[in-house]
Specification:
Layout (H helix, E strand, L loop, with lengths): L1 H25 L6 E8 L7 E3 L3 E2 L2 E9 L8 E2 L2 E2 L8 E8 L3 E6 L11 E6 L1
Parallel strand pairs: 1-4, 3-9
Antiparallel strand pairs: 1-2, 4-7, 5-6, 5-8, 8-9
């Protein structure tokens, strides 16, 4: 009879552990996705304005809008948009697997030297 009670107790304990652990295993955590709006040509023609200067690591979707009067592009972490004419926009997805500062820049000749660059902090 003692072995039977021990067996029932062990099965009950195992059931409690499974009921507690299964929801965590069944729904794996989703990777964090972040959206950042990038305005090229704002606050002046050769500047960028980002909606967020700091983002968590993971996938970041940059929506780049050119509100300036000359063409611009946006490059970060080795990925770049096409050349955007005034009033055009583009989307760029970048995955940051580690924390750090990542430089962004407009690659149109002379635009970087005129101030069209910055750093995005990834935590």
């Amino acid at each position: 009879m003692n072995r039977f009670r021990i067996g029932v107790l062990a099965l009950t304990a195992l059931s409690v552990v499974l009921v507690w652990a299964l929801p965590a295993v069944a729904s794996p955590s989703k990777a964090h996705a972040t959206a950042v709006t990038v305005t090229a040509g704002s606050p002046s023609e050769f500047k960028f304005k980002l909606s967020k200067a700091k983002v968590p690591h993971g996938t970041v979707t940059f929506t780049v809008k050119n509100v300036g009067s000359v063409p611009h592009d946006f490059k970060i972490a080795g990925k770049k948009t096409k050349l955007l004419n005034p009033k055009q926009s583009a989307t760029l997805k970048v995955t940051f697997s580690k924390a750090g500062k990542f430089k962004y820049v407009c690659t149109v000749p002379t635009h970087e030297t005129l101030g069209m660059w910055g750093n995005l902090t990834v935590t």
